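Example S7 (structure tokens).
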């Protein structure tokens, strides 16, 4: 046989093996007797189009509806060749997030702090490392801590007001403006640094913050490999954080910490609290009160940097998109916008003309509007968990193998007409107290639920509400010629984000 023939035979053999491997992976759930979605793409599985032509929210919603139409409590499917179980039954959602949390305490994210320092953050850590860090960080997100940061947020909101005054009576792309506002808030509250992105849109803070959420194919491949073959990825030192992104945040944290410790700088921000934990293993008042946990181990500089990093990226993009979608809906529903503005003005006037933490966080109708925005547009379209051991689904003989990805389709649950009639309609009255009582609590999961609920949710909601109050009291938002009739999500973004931006007409009141 000629050399060419041998090469062709080798290529055919490799392609055949690859085909058989992929087919076996796509038959993973069928061979175990699980309900599963048929007709997977050979390469993408059931997630064809995800990240290229369609956002993952649309794909997972289709799988969820397929399961619902067939009365299935859960559904097996393939993402590339990664087997995933989507949980569709609400009681089973509660079981995974709370009742059997001892089994499902990890998200299945890749974390390798030795090779990839910024991956050693609270969101990605697992097991004992996660529990110990969560216990130390929880006191930094109390309502008392938020009150200390409230004034700082108001100062940044004043800059937002000033910026829009220079842009009034014309169309504005609000997505970009709001991303700059939350970048300035996070930069100030996390680092104690005046980012000034409202005046300098080319800020490195904004550039690197956006980079985290870009849906790049190479990054997705690395992350998928790392999650599928974790032990091998750790041995190989796989990094999911880009080198320049890591260098920017690590250098920033190192320089800021060094400056503060050398000069004894004290600020009411997140970094100041982390420095106390780094040096003493707890917050200063816990040490004085004797209420700190037995684990008084401090934090390394890399561990501190990882927490500041996740605090920045989690708070910057998610809060800005919540405000962005909220303004879009208020522009489309002017009667809701006017009612909210009137109620906010009355509350603030009755409060001496100034918003306070308690007034902002306790305002009933503002809370309803924000919750309805989070229902229609949850920042993260799905939650993930992995079992630490083989797990038998209650009431069945089906066994989910250890370390298999469990998906809870938040976006699909929030758009299910069984729980939210006319789900595409924006209706804040869904969140009247009497209406909330009628629904199962686990059909509203914008921040997750259970012991692993988002630790920074109070901070994120506070900055979104402050931003909205500042905007609505001073400006009226109406659709422009570029405002889309319906939002289409950007397939290249990990979170829900409009593909066309959000152009609105802004008029001073």
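Recovered sequence:
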């Amino acid at each position: 046989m000629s050399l060419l023939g041998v090469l062709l035979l080798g290529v055919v053999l490799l392609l055949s093996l690859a085909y058989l491997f992929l087919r076996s992976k796509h038959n993973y759930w069928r061979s175990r007797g699980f309900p599963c979605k048929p007709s997977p793409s050979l390469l993408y599985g059931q997630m064809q189009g995800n990240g290229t032509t369609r956002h993952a929210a649309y794909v997972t919603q289709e799988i969820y509806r397929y399961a619902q139409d067939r009365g299935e409590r859960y559904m097996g499917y393939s993402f590339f060749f990664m087997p995933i179980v989507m949980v569709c039954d609400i009681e089973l959602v509660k079981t995974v997030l709370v009742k059997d949390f001892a089994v499902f305490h990890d998200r299945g994210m890749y974390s390798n702090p030795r090779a990839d320092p910024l991956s050693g953050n609270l969101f990605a850590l697992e097991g004992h490392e996660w529990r110990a860090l969560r216990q130390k960080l929880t006191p930094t997100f109390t309502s008392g801590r938020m009150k200390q940061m409230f004034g700082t947020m108001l100062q940044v909101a004043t800059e937002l007001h000033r910026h829009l005054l220079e842009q009034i009576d014309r169309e504005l792309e609000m997505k970009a403006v709001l991303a700059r506002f939350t970048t300035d808030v996070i930069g100030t509250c996390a680092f104690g640094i005046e980012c000034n992105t409202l005046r300098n849109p080319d800020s490195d803070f904004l550039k690197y913050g956006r980079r985290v959420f870009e849906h790049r194919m190479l990054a997705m491949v690395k992350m998928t490999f790392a999650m599928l073959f974790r032990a091998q990825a750790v041995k190989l030192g796989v990094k999911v954080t880009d080198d320049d992104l890591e260098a920017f945040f690590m250098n920033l944290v190192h320089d800021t910490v060094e400056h503060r410790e050398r000069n004894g700088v004290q600020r009411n921000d997140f970094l100041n609290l982390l420095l106390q934990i780094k040096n003493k293993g707890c917050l200063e008042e816990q040490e004085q009160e004797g209420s700190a946990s037995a684990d008084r181990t401090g934090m390394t500089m890399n561990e501190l940097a990882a927490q500041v990093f996740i605090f920045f990226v989690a708070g910057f993009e998610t809060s800005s998109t919540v405000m962005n979608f909220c303004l879009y809906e208020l522009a489309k529903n002017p009667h809701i916008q006017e009612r909210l503005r009137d109620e906010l003005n009355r509350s603030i006037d009755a409060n001496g003309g100034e918003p306070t933490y308690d007034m902002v966080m306790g305002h009933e109708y503002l809370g309803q509007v924000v919750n309805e925005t989070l229902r229609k547009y949850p920042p993260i379209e799905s939650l993930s968990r992995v079992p630490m051991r083989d797990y038998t689904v209650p009431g069945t003989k089906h066994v989910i193998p250890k370390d298999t990805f469990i998906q809870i389709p938040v976006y699909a649950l929030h758009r299910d007409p069984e729980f939210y009639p006319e789900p595409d309609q924006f209706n804040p009255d869904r969140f009247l107290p009497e209406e909330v009582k009628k629904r199962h609590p686990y059909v509203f999961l914008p921040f997750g639920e259970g012991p692993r609920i988002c630790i920074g949710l109070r901070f994120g909601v506070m900055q979104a509400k402050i931003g909205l109050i500042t905007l609505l009291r001073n400006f009226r938002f109406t659709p422009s010629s570029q405002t889309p009739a319906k939002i289409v999500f950007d397939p290249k973004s990990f979170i829900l984000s409009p593909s066309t931006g959000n152009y609105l007409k802004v008029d001073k009141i």
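Notes on this example. The CA atoms of residues 114 and 211 lie 22 Å apart.
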